[in-house]
Amino acid sequence: MIRIESRPEWRRREHRREQLFQLVGAAIVLFALTTLTVLLVKIFLDGYTRLSPEFLSNFPSRRPDEAGIKAALVGSFYLLLLTAALAIPIGVGAAIYLEEFAKRNWFTRLVEINITNLAGVPSIIYGLLGLQVFVRTLSMDRSLLAGACTMALLALPVIITAAREGLRTVPNSLRYGSLALGATQWQTVRYTVLPVALPAILTGVILSLSRVVGETAPLLVIGAVVYISKLPDGLCSPFTVLPVQIYDWTTRPQKAFQENAAAGIIVLLMLLLAMNAAAIYLRNRYQKRLAL
Amino acid sequence: MAYARAVVRVGVEKRNRWRMRLEERIVRTLLFLCALVGIVTTVAIVLILATESVGFFEQVSLVEFLTGTVWTPTFANPSFGVLPLVTGTFLTTAIAMAVSGPVGLLTAIYLSEYASPRVRRVVKPTLEVLAGIPTVVYGYFALTFLTPLLQRFIPALEGFNALSAGLVMGIMILPTVASLSEDALYAVPNSLRYASLALGATRFQTVWGVVVPAAMSGISASFLLGISRAVGETMIVAIAAGQQPTFTFNPLRAIETMTAFIVRITMGDIPHGTVEYRTIFAVGLLLFLITLALNLASEAIRQRYKGARL
Fold first, then answer.
1. Which CATH number fits domain B83-307: 3.40.190.10, 2.60.40.2470, 1.25.40.10, 1.10.3720.10?
2. Rg of chain B over CA atoms, in angstroms?
3. What pTM value is reported for the model?
4. Please, which residues have CB within 8 angstroms of residue A186's CB and are 6 or more apart in sequence?
5. Residue B215: which of B259, B263, B178, B181 has the closest Cα?
6. ipTM field
7. Per-residue model confidence as pLDDT tens digits over A18-54
8. Looking at CA atoms only, how far is residue B107 from chain A in angstroms?
9. What residues of chain A lie within 8 A of the CB of B52, using their CB?
10. Contact of A137 with B44, CB cutoff 8 Å
11. Tens digits of per-residue pLDDT, B41-55?
């Protein structure tokens, strides 16, 4: 007679192990969520008392309750615009070349490997590059332009990758259709591929540029000035940006300055949130169009 | 008349075609130049780090640089042993990986093998938000929240220390490790899972005995990339780990990483052309080489596993 045990010991053990792992998984999910919540709540509690219209419209000051982020906010905005103006044409151009024109040969592969590697270079190395090339050799000094050039190089690998992904969403049938009608390759890209790919490219580009807004290290290296009491009035003006201002306030021993830092972080996070929302809005609109 | 018009039309068409071809050429060249910017950037980085470092090593011996344990380049009687910066970097990186390695891998396994779509819809955006938070914010968090919190349990913890900087850095890297590991797990074909389950293995046995080993190369690639990010991370360590090059493996003490050193020197007013100024390029070169090696190794492993996919 063979007796079949309904639930042998190993079966039960396995079952327990299975349940245990489910628990571990849940704990880890909770860990990520809790960390994020604690971080946001802590910063909000530290900083919300300092948030006021004056905080946005005052220049930095030695007295913490009079200090504001006007110069930093405007500087961040200018830097973002200038970086975008430099990096988007070059980045999208490089992406178009690699996706639409380049032949598959050793040189193209080299360019691709190189872009992957550049994306992994620590941002502070870009700071050293900017310091030596733009600030010293091209003697732009510690100017908005030097900052934007450095940040453009930093953003380039990410923008190229994002733009290539955007171009890849365009079905080949559209390219063939345009070429069959006698259009040249550039005409095909210009009038058929780019209009279709534009929302996807923009989504990726906005997301890459939101990284530029939060970047601190390279700007510290090329010398974004922390204490600044007038707005940049040209490409060659000294400048500061929000993350640099936050860094400066964070590293001061007085608690009141750290509260300023927290308030600055709230503004910075709002800014990033707005940029990401814009990217998501574009993505959703684009998805609808593709469904047609 | 009709003939003349036809001739004119042919002429116009010829001119148009000529112009089109010219435009095509110009555009192609411009786009090619855009693609070249990346190569130029790499060459410029290598060239700058190399030339300034050569100047540095003319005055400081390579052996002293790589084996010395005292790093005081700004003192009147300077000493150029880079090891304190290396151990500082190693310490924060190790702590960060101790967090993001296990937690990242478990998150990836949970998301790809266990989690319901509803859980995924919550966790994935959370990770994306964590990945999008600027590092200066993490630095603030480490200095003003985690360090005071930890000091309640560990009284010996200094105000600046490797421990809380490393822990927060682990959270910063977590999304990178988790999402790349998840990609690797996702790439394991379902046939392997079905085969294992059909042989009577439980889900736990299938995951740990079949799926994870099959995705091992992708998982190690994600770990290497995580390490590389940790080594190159600047703001968290510059804010929370201190600016005090100490040759120690004690995570409770203030240290200085290679990146934090570069920030400290460039924030001061060191004149161009001096040895002190050149140190940041020598340290930068070391940093560049370490991260490059890690990135290349990660990429090589990923390529191999792409080829070996079932």
1. 1.10.3720.10
2. 27
3. 0.89
4. B23, B24, B27, B28
5. B181
6. 0.89
7. 888 888 888 888 888 899 999 999 999 988 888 888 8
8. 6
9. 132
10. no
11. 999 999 999 998 998
